[in-house]
Amino acid sequence: MPMPLTGDEDCGTREIVRAGPVAEKEGELVDSSDQQIIERVNQGDPAAFEELLERYEEKIFHFGMRMCGQVEDARDLLQETFLNAFRYLKGFRGEAQFKNWLYKIASSVCIKMRRKGKFEPDFEISLDQLVPTEDGEVPQEIPDWALEPLENVLSKEVRRRLSEALALLPKEYRIVLVLRDMEGFSTEETAETLGISEAAVKSRLHRARLFVRHKLHEYFQGRKP
Amino acid sequence: MDEGCRKLFERMSEYLDGELDLKELADIESHLHLCHHCEACLAALRRTIEVCRSHSVPSMPTEVRRELHELIRKNLS
């Protein structure tokens, strides 16, 4: 049985959430919880909202960059997300984690917005398109790029190719891949965030991964002497 | 591609994510022992996921942060 890929392998993309005000408790530093900050905002201290900004602005910006690929678009997504979060904070009941609620807003903003000056791909990805074929890419053995240590594979060019592959994915597939494989959301959290079934998350994720695999395969095949 | 290969191809992500039930898992693992093509396909997909998880983006520019905070402060008042 494989060790499930948990996301903990990602050591380069996660940001440490900046700590908010801390209180000392029995010698330990304890963060103010998001919920405590939200209560302060809702009880008439709107400036406390900036503490939530400090905690999550970098994460939402990164999500915007992964989804849109351009600073300008990521900035718009960031601003619209936090403006909406501030407007609707009174409606946040704490049933979900604040972070997930924020991503739900960001995802909704993202789905609605159009990338500036960018063609937005819109097509269905069928598994049949991506099945390895006899005359195509049926691998006879594990390809080198899957065998080498990951750090040897992660060149600047590969990172660029990955960004290009992401940009070529239709948005409904891209957002699932970004949430699951880059932002560390579980299948259940992704389904909840996007308001779709877990089966749909799994289906879109698999197709998106295969699409990216195909693009990476093309790149590595092209490099072969 | 035979039926076993097709089944594995459809469920590779769930296999790698540990989301299959025991029966499906056993079926896929017994197929994997016999099929080098599927083993290679699976290795490439696993590596793709690792590459995705290593995807880094630039930090938020100071200017973007400043604009955001200004916008929010304007709405706070």
TrEMBL record, chain B:
Organism name: Tectimicrobiota bacterium
Ranges of residues in domain Putative zinc-finger: 5-38
Phylogenetic classification of the source organism: Bacteria, Pseudomonadati, Nitrospinota/Tectimicrobiota group, Candidatus Tectimicrobiota
Pfam families membership: zf-HC2
Superkingdom, taxonomy of origin: Bacteria
Protein name per UniProt: Zf-HC2 domain-containing protein
